[in-house]
Each structure stands twice: as structure tokens, then as C-alpha cells.
Amino acid sequence: xxxxxxxxxxxxxxxxxxxxxxxxxxxxxxxxxxxxxxxxxxxxxxxxxxxxxxxxxxxxxxxxxxxxxxxxxxxxxxxxxxxxxxxxxxxxxxxxxxxxxxxxxxxxxxxxxxxxxxxxxxxxxxxxxxxxxxxxxxxxxxxxxxxxxxxxxxxxxxxxxxxxxxxxxxxxxxxxxxxxxxxxxxxxxxxxxxxxxxxxxxxxxxxxxxxxxxxxxxxxxxxxxxxxxxxxxxxxxxxxxxxxxxxxxxxxxxxxxxxxxxxxxxxxxxxxxx
Length: 274
Prior knowledge:
Low-confidence stretches: 1-9, 16-23, 252-257
Structural class: mainly alpha
Largest sheet: none
């Protein structure tokens, strides 16, 4: 049950963007092929983007940003090994390239499932940029996947100190509280996350589970119904069915108890009246 939320709640934030990359050389910024390749990538033409970045690398082989964007193109083309090679070349060209370390952490965690390597990369990002809330959130997601829940909470608390209105960090922290059975704290985080981002499916699913734990079955059913309307995920249907069964089972049980008590009262009156 809770694995569904664990998947939804762990949101990795990539520091690199499609529109502007950090520390791009002035020569590259003036290069129209650079603009075109990034535009191709942003618009989903990964093959054209890959060709464009590779062409530029022939002239600018030591430009880390080019290697990072080539890596992103290769990810879109479902070539994670090629992406890792490109990202590692970016780090070789610039060992302090935050976007390269962040992207490598993402690939290692989300594609290769290597939490240890991802943690190492995210810690490097924090070393380079200690006031990045996104970096602390990313580290927390990796720590959570490795099972280091207390350490992950510490990273999330730091992320929220730096950026209090950070919906994804609240959702992830709520998921950890839920795993620890701290449902009151979990519900508080899920509710705050939804105030910041009403479209956060992870927070809404978490809220449904917190409501169910509190035996607020109508609220749980409502949250799951909204999730079903947003997505055809079969897990939501299963959870909805379980909540409905529990909710109406209790109703039927109360009716049965009421009828049993009524019968006993009538019997007692009959016996008393002789």
C-alpha cells in the first residue's frame, strides 16, 4: 500500500534547465546551434538535439554544459549508459559543475537504483551549494530509498528551513512520518503540501491514508475518488474499494448491533410483563 506513495513522494529536482544552463561560456551563448539544440530538446526532438550537441562538441570539447545537455538528450532516447558517460565527461571538464553532479545523482538513483552513488553525488552538490533547498531534498529522497529515514528527515528539515513553501519536501517528509507511524505529523505535512500545490498526487494519496488511519473513511474515500478522476492508476481503485468496504461494513455492523439490542429489549419487556 505505502509503496505507492513512496514512489509518488520522492521528487528529484534537477538544477539544470532547458532554457538556461549555468556557467555557459560566452562563445557558446552566442552560438545559434546551441540555442537550436536546446530548443529541440525542450520540444521533445531528442534525436535532433543529440546530433546538435555532438556537432558542437567537436568544436567545444571541454565545455561541460554541452556534455550535460548531451546526457539529457541520451536519457530522453533511453540510453542511460551513454548519458552517464556524457555526464562523467562534464564532471571531468568541470569537477564543480553542480548540474552535472545533480543529473548523475538522478540517473544513479532513479534509473540504476544505486542509492549509495546518488547520495555521494547529492552530498557533493550540497558541498558546492549548501543553501540549495533542492539539493537537500534530493539527498533526502536518496537516503529514504536506502532506508535511512532519520537522516532523510534531517535533510528535509534543512530543505524546509531554507524554503518553507516547498511542497515536494513536505510530501516526502509526510511519507517518512507515515512509514514511522506518526500519522498526525504526516497528515499535517500532506495538508500543507496540498495548500501549496493542489495537484500533488503524492500528498493527496498520503492524506487519504492518514484519514483512513484516523477512521475518517468518508474523507479517505473523497481523496481517493479525486485521485481516480485524475488518473486511471489501478492502485487508487483498490484503495478506494477497501475504504468503501470498511466504511459500509461498519455501518452494517452498527445496524446489526442496534437490531440485536432492540430485540433483547423487547424480549426483556415481554418477559417482565409475563
